[in-house]
Amino acid sequence: MPAFVAIDGEKGGVGKSFTCQALVSWALQRRIPVVVVDANDNIPDVARRYNGLVPVHVVSVKEEGGWTKVIDIAADCRTSLKTGILALNLPGNVLTSYPEQRTTMFRFMKQRLGYRNTLVWTMDLGEDVVVQLGHGLAPIIEFVEGRIALRNTVWGEPEKFTAWSNSRMRKRFLEVGGVDASFPRLWREVARLISRPGVTTYREHNPSLMGYGEYAVLEDWIARADGVFDQLRPCIGV
Hints:
Layout: E1 3-8, H1 16-29, E2 34-38, H2 45-50, E3 56-58, H3 66-81, E4 85-89, H4 99-111, E5 116-123, H5 128-137, E6 146-152, H6 162-165, H7 168-175, E7 179-183, H8 188-194, H9 212-236
Parallel strand pairs: 1-4, 1-5, 2-3, 2-4, 5-6, 6-7
Helix pairs in contact: 3-4
């Protein structure tokens, strides 16, 4: 069955778009079919990077009917995806944007379209993103088989995520089958270099586009990021 992976986190700037890019890159490397829906329509970096490499769509879930557009896209591509991934990159502050339609989307994807739904909740060090996880998961929990809390270690090493690791939310999350994972840190200078306008996906970089040292850091980071998604593959369901 195809997998539907929604990359959320509610806060802006926690790293959702970068995580989605890494997921799409990993899927392509593993020859897993993938379709991108970029709902971060003000800054659709994922759609821009992968346009021409995979099917991409840009929608706004902050407008009424946006969540239902995702359903339409999922219905159109479910046959071609088969055992692939429909990746939804979400902007910040969407839990109050037509929440009933958000729940409808997850329900319909699972019950009527036959997708295996996964929620990837991308986190920084703050307590607010932990609280928001509860608000984001509760209305859809019966329709989401894969539940991943992803610590973005660009904000600090895993042990610094004390707001998450010491929370009751983490305990409840693990009790309902959630997976706790860490996304590898990338040196900010390298992240800046691979995020420049006009530059395509990070796997297409080479030492001519940056220093050899920076490229070496990028090469090692790609291997670590791929390793994270290899470990999460059973949870995603591909």
